[in-house]
Amino acid sequence: MDLRFTEEERAFRLEVRRFLQEQLPRGIHDKMLEHRSLTKEEVVAWQRVLNRRGWATPSWPREWGGPGWTAVQRYIFLDELHQFPAPEPVSFNVSMIGPVIGTFGSPEQKARLLPRIANLDDWWCQGFSEPGAGSDLAALTTSAVREGDHYVVNGTKMWQGMGHRADWMFALVRTDPAARKQAGISFLLIDMKSPGLTVQPIITIDGRHEVNTVFLDNVRVPVANRVHEENRGWDVAKFLLGNERTGIARIGMSKYLLRRARRIAAEVPSGEGCLADDPVFRRRAAEIEVELQALEVTQMRVLAGMEAHSDKPDPRSSILKVKGVELRQAASELLLRAAGPLALPAEGEFDPPNPVDPAADTEWAGTIAPVYFVLRAASIYGGSTEVQKNILAQAVLGLPK
Fold first, then answer.
1. For strand 185-191 and strand 168-174, is the pairing parallel, antiparallel, or unpaired?
2. 3-state secondary structure (DSSP) of residue 359
3. In this predicted model, what pLDDT tens digit does every residue of 273-332 receive, in sequence order?
4. Which listed CATH number (1.20.1250.20, 3.90.1150.10, 3.40.50.620, 2.40.110.10) goes with 124-233?
5. String of b and e for 72-108 (b: at least 16 CB within 10 Å)?
6. H/E stretch holding 126
7. Which residues pair with 369 in a beta bridge?
8. Are strands 226-227 and 209-222 parallel, antiparallel or unpaired?
9. Euclidean distance between CA atoms 364 and 4, whole angstroms
C-alpha cells in the first residue's frame, strides 16, 4: 500500500495553502491564531468566500453542487484549514444536514435547501440529545403528534450547539410512542423562529456560549418539513452520524497547538535559557510529534480503505477519534504549561491579561486555559471514547458483545 501523496495531491495542497494566504481576511486569521471566538458575521462571510470558490461543501458530490473531491482531497483541505488555521465550513450545514437532504430529501427539498445550506443563507443546528437521552439517543422522548398538515412538537433538546445563531434545527422526534425505540422516530426540520420554541444558553467551562437547551412547547411543524418517511428517522440519524469521517482525527489542529506551544516556550525564561530548551518540555513535545506522525500514517491507511470501499463505513475510523482526541488534549496541556499564568483570561470573555511576562508582549495567551478546559469534552462529543473502544473491540478485533 503506497501511502504517499501523488503529485496531483501535493499540488492540490499548495493550491489550498495559497488560497488561504490570499483570501482569508486578516482579522479572522488573527482570531484563529489566538483561539478567539468569531462573530456570526465573520463565519458567514468566510463560508461565502469558500462557496464562491466551490469549496464550502468539501464532502458533497458534484450533483449536489459540491466539488466531488476524493477522500484524500477532503483530508488535505481540512488539514490545511486546521494548520493555517482557518475556520472550517459550518459542520451542521455541510457535514450533517446537507448530505442528509442530498440523500433522503425530496426533489423540492434538495432544490430549495442545498444551495442555501452551502452559502450559509440558513444556519442549521442539531436537535438530537435530550435530558436522559445522550449516549442512548434512541431513548429520546420529544414527541411529535400529527394534526392534519402539521406535527405538534413538545419536548427538550440539550447540549444543542449554536442554536442561538441558527435559523433552522434538524431534530429527531418520537412519532410512534408504541413502537420499539428506534422504530418510532422521525426526522423534522424546525424553524427556530417558531412560536413556542425557546433557546436557553448554557455557558461552558471555557466561558463561551456555544451550546444551549431548547424547549419546544406545542411547536407546529409542517409535515412537508419531514425528511424521509414517518417513523424512519433512525435510518437518517445513523447515516448522519456516520457520514463524515475523513477529518475526525483533527491532526492539523494538534499540529497547530504543538507549534504554538513551542513558539511560546521559546519566549518564556527558564533557568539560564528559555522553556523550549528545558529537556522535560522538549521530550514531551517530541513524544506528541512522533505520535502525531504515527496517527497520520494510520489516517492515510483508513483513507486508502475508504477510497476502495467508499460505500461502507470503516470501523477503524474509531482509532482516529480516540487517538486524535488524546493528542489534541496532550498538545493543549503542553500549551497550557508553556503559557503558565498567562493562560488564564482576565475578566470578560477572553480579555487579554495584563502583561506580567515577556511572552505577553508577543503572544496573546489568555485563551489557552479555556481551550484546554473545553477539550476535556472532546472525549465525549462525536462519540465517546468508551463507545469508540466498543466499536473497535467488536468490529476490528472481533470480540463478542
1. antiparallel
2. helix
3. 899 999 999 999 999 999 999 999 888 888 777 666 555 667 788 888 899 999 999 999
4. 2.40.110.10
5. bbbbbbbbbbbbbbbbbbbbbbbbbbbbbbbebbeee
6. strand 124-127
7. none
8. unpaired
9. 37
C-alpha cell at 138: 434512541
Instruction: Report the alpha-carbon distance of residue 315 to residue 302 in Å, rounded.
Output: 9
Q: Residues, the chain, total?
A: 401
According to CATH, the superfamily of the domain at 245-396 is Butyryl-CoA Dehydrogenase, subunit A, domain 3 (1.20.140.10)
Beta strands in 162-272 (DSSP E): 168-174, 185-191, 197-203, 209-222, 226-227, 269-270
Collapse the DSSP code of 128 into the 3-class scheme (helix H, G, I; strand E, B; otherwise coil) and give the result: coil
| Cα–Cα distance measured from residue 376 to residue 333, given in angstroms and rounded to the nearest whole number | 10
Report angle CA 37, 40, 42 to the nearest 5 degrees: 80
Instruction: Give me 152's grid cell.
Output: 405538534
Task: Write down the residue that cell numbers 447515516 correspond to.
Answer: 239
- Tens of pLDDT, residue by residue over 81-140, are 999 999 999 999 999 999 999 999 999 999 999 999 999 999 999 999 999 887 788 899
Question: Residue 269 and residue 357: Cα distance in Å, rounded?
Answer: 9
